Amino acid sequence: MSTKTNLAIEARGVVKRYGEVMALDGLDLTVPRGGCFGLLGPNGAGKTTLVSILATLARPDAGSARLFGHDVVSERAAVRQRIGIVFQESALDRQLTGREHLDLHARLYHLADRKARVEEALRVAGLEDAADRPVHGWSGGMRRRLELARGLLHGPPLLFLDEPTLGLDVAARAGIWERLRALRDGGETTLFLTTHSMEEADALCQQLAIVDRGRLAIEGAPEELKAALGGDLVILTLRDAAGAAEAVRAVADVQVALDDGKNGTGARLRIITPDGPRRLPALLEAARGFGVEEVRLHRPSLEDVFLHHTGHPFEPFESGAERAA
User: Fold this and answer.
1) 3-state secondary structure (DSSP) of residue 308
2) Residues 6 or more apart from 57 whose CB is under 8 A from it?
3) Domain total for the chain?
4) 118 and 171 assigned to the same domain
5) What is the pTM of this model?
6) pLDDT one-digit tens code per residue, 304-324
7) Are 42 and 182 in a shared domain?
8) Is 138 in the same domain as 245?
9) pLDDT at residue 323, rounded to an integer
10) Is 241 part of a structural domain of the chain?
């Protein structure tokens, strides 16, 4: 039995194992109706597993998850009627036309007004002129707009978006962002976004959750999460970062983390301090003698929040151009 709720998603104590691997370790998560919610985390943090469970594609080993009050295990049909999915990898048959894709989707959902819905979806997506051409000749941005239109065709109150702009060029990405903002601001559809683009998360999401090792690390609005770090970020690249860390820690009101300099970069100190411009001379004086090579000062970004709460450097996908080809 479902009950009226203001939550789009409510997950409690969700556990999922794959052999000896603990993908989700008692994860709790709530997502309100409306707006755009972002899920971030290092590779292997459990993001894909969680979305698979929420979309009824996998079952939790323990705990529970409900979408709009419907249990994802015992009420799978009700959940599936209320969700749309835009997958990370293209799920289009390149021999079909855009109109054929949407008509097939409408038939699968038994939409009585399918012709009218298909025409409206093509119009909103800006695909009317290309609708009767096979999608193998479309650009990556056009194909992504078609997948977005297909995911929304049956009017789901919740849309899962897995890396929706991966591999797209700047113009195509901007077009997708514009459509997603319109959906977000319309208030009728809840967007659940997983992305490796911190810029995308910052641009679209009103609330974020960062997961790590199968658990919730932190959640909140992007600006709140950045402000919660407690000040400005000073990054020092040094020959002896470990030695400098002890000296810098003697400076009051600072948080110091050591980055061991992977991927060919020098070892670095990440220092969070109130009023960075005023305190920078004292920090540099403390680090003198440890071979300062580079100094950077900026306000915390979402990438800084990510690193602070997971201990992992942000690892965006480097490929994906093939999807846009």
Assistant:
1) helix
2) none
3) 2
4) yes
5) 0.82
6) 888 888 876 555 443 333 333
7) yes
8) no
9) 34
10) yes
